Amino acid sequence: MDADIAIEFDDVVAGYGDFMILNNLSLRARRGKITLLLGPNGAGKSTALKTLFGLLSVRSGRIRLDGRDITGASAKALLVEHGIAFVPQGRNLFGQLSVHENLELGGITLGMKTTHERIPEVLDRFPRLKERLHSAAASLSGGEQKQLEVGRALLLRPKVILIDEPSIGLSPLVVADVFRLLRQLADQGTTVLMVEQNVKSALKMADDAIALESGRLVLHKAAHELLADPHIERLFLGGAQPAAAAAAAAARA
């Protein structure tokens, strides 16, 4: 096992019921780096995050974290014992509860004493949340709600953050703030595995890019190299040229 590799999928098969989305998926994500998962709709990007976080069962294959087999571990064990935090797509807050109460719930596995000790360090990253600490989460703007979701994850001081489509519903300025935060976290040693529809902006701050098609890896390349590739739009949007062919062309570039 390469010492620089944090996350490894080895021939993973997973899906919903009898419908398999991941088909012998093998990939690696480096420790302390931002790895962007991209590909057309239905390629398996979000499914990969959910499978890694234990929300979907692995039918076959193995998943490793820092060389340790975590296949079949529950979401709670992955969060508490292995330091993996998941920020899913959409809004996942308790709207009628305050910002502070949402943070308390986010740290419930830590115990109240530790949670209250850590809340100030989260609020230091998000001054706007500090200003609205006692406001209902439902009254926050979309950007503030996303900050609260990320802040809840940071309470756990995770080694790995999985984040799915963080830019949905956010203004370009807020998206830039979220991306800067993820870049800062990675530079401080956190491993980030991200799905993002705003591919070009995400590639500008990511380290590595992995393209999926039909639940399989078709490309793994440095983000800055892929950013300049003319096939990137078709690769992401699933245009007339099949994504696999686009990925093959990108890999040869």
Strand content: 25-35%
The CATH class of the largest domain turns out to be Alpha Beta
- Average residue pLDDT: 89
**What is the chains' assembly state?**
single chain
**Rounded Rg:** 18 Å
Strand count: 10
Helicity level:
25-40%
Main sheet?
6 strands, mixed
Count of domains: 2
Structural class: alpha/beta
Overall outline: globular
**How many alpha or pi helices?**
11
Poorly predicted regions are: 238-242
Largest sheet, spatial ordering of strands = 6-7-8-3-9-10
> What is the first-to-last residue Cα distance?
28 Å
CATH homologous superfamily identity of the largest domain? P-loop containing nucleotide triphosphate hydrolases
Output the CATH topology of the largest domain. Answer: Rossmann fold
User: H/E element string?
Assistant: EEEHEEHEHHHHEHEHEEHHH
Could you list some keywords that capture this structure?
alpha/beta, six-stranded mixed sheet, single chain, 10 strands, Rossmann fold, four-stranded antiparallel sheet, 11 helices
Summarize the structure.
The protein is of the alpha/beta class and 253 residues long. The protein is built from eleven helices and ten strands.
Task: Tell me what the structure shows.
- The strands form two sheets. The chain has a six-stranded mixed β-sheet, with helices on both faces. It has a four-stranded antiparallel β-sheet with strand order 2-1-4-5, with helices on one face.
- It has eleven helices and ten strands.
- It folds into two domains: 5-83 and 159-252, P-loop containing nucleotide triphosphate hydrolases (Rossmann fold, 3-Layer(aba) Sandwich), CATH 3.40.50.300; 94-157, no CATH class.
- The longest helix has 16 residues, at 172-187.
- Helix 3 (99-106) crosses helix 4 (112-125) and helix 3 (99-106) runs parallel beside helix 6.
- Mean pLDDT is 89; it is low at 238-242.
- It is globular and about 45 Å long.
- The chain has 253 residues and is of the alpha/beta class.
